[in-house]
Amino acid sequence: MKAGRFPLARPRRNRVDDFTRRLVAETSLGINNLIWPIFFTEGTNTVTEVASMPGVHRVTLDRLAGHVEHAAKLGIPALALFPVTPAEVKDAEGTEALNPDNLMCRAARLLKKEFPHLGLIGDVALDPYTSHGHDGVIRDGYVHNDDSVAILTRQTVNQAAAGIDIIAPSDMMDGRISTMRTALDENGMVNTRIMSYAAKYASVFYGPFRDALGSGDKLKGDKKTYQMDPANSDEAMREVEMDIAEGADMVMVKPGMPYLDIVQRVKETFSVPTYVYQVSGEYAMLMAAIRNGWLDHERAVMESLLAFRRAGANGILTYFAVEAAERIRQTYGQ
Ligand code: PBG
Asked: Where does the signal peptide begin and end (predicted)?
């Protein structure tokens, strides 16, 4: 065999230098692909770090605009809003969810005023408001589907009226997208979008989020009667299909990194705008390794996010959104 003649096909040629690698790259991560989840609380002048999510903070409303300003300047298209409701206003029915002056609505009004071009995504579920920590209401020891949907639908209109642009139901009740779409339309909110948490799994990886919200220690039992079994993939396709048929504009898969197969299948099957949530436990795992010096910070974060794009996600809800946007800016100057 003559030197230089074997092998004829050399895939490594396309990896030989940076410009070629960039030319042949099949996917990319841009600032437009990032959604930043944020936590806010009552009170004044306080910023607290979530213990299990180093680098993630809960801020009081008076600090919210300052907290968000940098993300807005970086051009992150949208925020996902999560209120930390005080224990005193929680009850078994999640009544506070319907209060037009609840923390969520006040935050939405404030942000819309300060940053009119920043998209606001409102999580619709009752867990920030219920004393038992479930996403719906309980009848005879069971999270009741239809009674929960009725309340969640009113919560939807309440949030949209406060300025939420995209309603994101994370409750996993059956049939809620159709009632929410109908209620929005009847209230003249025809352009309020719905990003459904269509395939949301009953996952251990939400633990740190529940710490952030203060709902974790309150949760009675688990959410397995409404969130999906991690064993299932076909079922995710049925959930997504139903939500699209009921009027969802965008769909989400959650969690992210252990569910890339679901992201890929959803995108390939339905070709709809598809989002993925890199959840709190994924953030906590990465940060733990990064803080220990076991993983390189920048590379671990950027590789995890690029993988979502390769799987087919249009966008990623990630607690790393701001630092990822900064790194994208630095690299491409965009
Ligand atoms: C509420 C909700 C949860 C998350 C987003 N919306 C928690 C849950 O379902 O228990 C989790 C987000 C995260 O872990 O980062 N329904």
From this structure: none
Helix (H, G, I), strand (E, B), or coil: what is residue 273?
Answer: coil
∠219-179-79 over CA atoms, to 5°?
60
Task: Give the percent of the chain with pLDDT over 90.
Answer: 94
Tell me which residue of 142, 290, 260, 158 sits closest to 199, measured CA to CA: 260
* Separation between Cα atoms, residue 24 and residue 264, nearest integer Å: 21
Q: Is 200 a catalytic residue?
A: yes
Query: Cα 240 vs. chain centroid, distance in angstroms?
Result: 16
Q: Which amino acid is at 279?
A: V
C-alpha 166/C-alpha 191 separation (Å) is 9
User: What average pLDDT score do residues 313-331 get?
Assistant: 97
The predicted model gives 291-312 an average pLDDT of 98
Q: Span 154-183, mean pLDDT?
A: 98
What's the pLDDT at 5?
81
**C-alpha 208 to ligand 1 mean position (Å):** 9
